[in-house]
Amino acid sequence: MSGDIGFVGLGNMGGPMAARLAAEGHRLTVADAAPGVAAAFAAEHPTAQVADGNASFARTATLVLMLPDSDVVEQVLEGDGLAEALPPGCLVIDMSSSEPLRTRALARRLADRGLSLLDAPVSGGVRGARAGTLSVLAGGAPKDLERAAPLLRAMARTIVPVGGTGCGHAAKALNNLVSAATVSVTVEALALGEAFGIPPETMTQVLNSSSGRTNTSENKVAQFMTSGSFDSGFALRLMSKDVDIAVGLARSLDRTAELSGHVADQWRRVARSVPPRTDHTAMYALLGTAADEEAKEATR
Length: 300
Ligand code: NAD
Description:
Elements: E1 4-8, H1 14-23, E2 28-31, H2 37-44, E3 48-50, E4 60-65, H3 70-79, H4 82-85, E5 91-94, H5 100-112, E6 116-119, E7 122-123, H6 125-131, E8 134-139, H7 142-153, E9 156-163, H8 167-195, H9 200-208, H10 215-219, H11 221-225, H12 236-252, H13 258-272, H14 283-286, H15 290-298
Parallel strand pairs: 1-2, 1-4, 2-3, 4-5, 5-6, 8-9
Antiparallel strand pairs: 7-8
Helix pairs in contact: 1-6, 8-12, 8-13, 12-13
The structure holds nicotinamide-adenine-dinucleotide.
């Protein structure tokens, strides 16, 4: 892919993802709302320059967004006017975990401006972002995916073409619904085991050698939960947002998703009661605590 790459959103994921592109020699124009973040990135990566307003993206062939949610994606592109500054033919790749129906509507509005949109959210966490081993779940026109593939391959080991516009974002929300449910149920099993006299470390060993094994039991419990570090780099409020997207999808399809609704309620309740940057692995410390019980009472 030729031409300049714009990259907006250099947080826990976007920072290391953009760093992978810079390491391959791509010229990057970077922006982030948090003061000093873009400048710090450019200081570390000689091929990157800090955007000085939307005009800096006037020659951008591909714009990558790694932002918290659809609200922010729409704000950046439309509210703040970045879409107006992009040249016709620019491919916008939304790698954030956004809302599929809003993505479809956004794609139509961008098409009116001569811009294409690919939804390409990722799985694999901060570790995968640093290592360039993410999975990309892609939604959009095959020709746009083909165009984006060399750039995506700098950040990902696996690219799954999921379907048309919005399918990547739908698949990502559904994946995280499963992931959140396994965190919830694993944390419950560990607490019940402990109450019965089985140490969490032993119970984790049990899960990892048995049919209850999941990504949560293998890659989160010992590393971020029982260790007490709670620093996987994925915020609890973002996971809660993803589960809400999945449940919203069920609602929009007029489908019942009973268990998913319970999972969403639980994550929403806990997300409301903790500081915004609390890691999602802190569910281990939060579920069943006195503070959680109070929050549960307050929302009854
Ligand atoms: P983050 O909060 O660490 O990063 C978001 C970045 O966007 C921040 O640096 C913030 O300053 C910036 N930002 C916010 N509003 C902005 C605006 N108006 N203009 C420019 N920059 C703005 O979040 P993250 O963990 O990097 O997650 C980003 C997306 O990726 C989310 O949709 C999340 O659900 C998804 N995701 C996260 C992980 C993970 O492990 N952290 C894994 C897969 C997917």
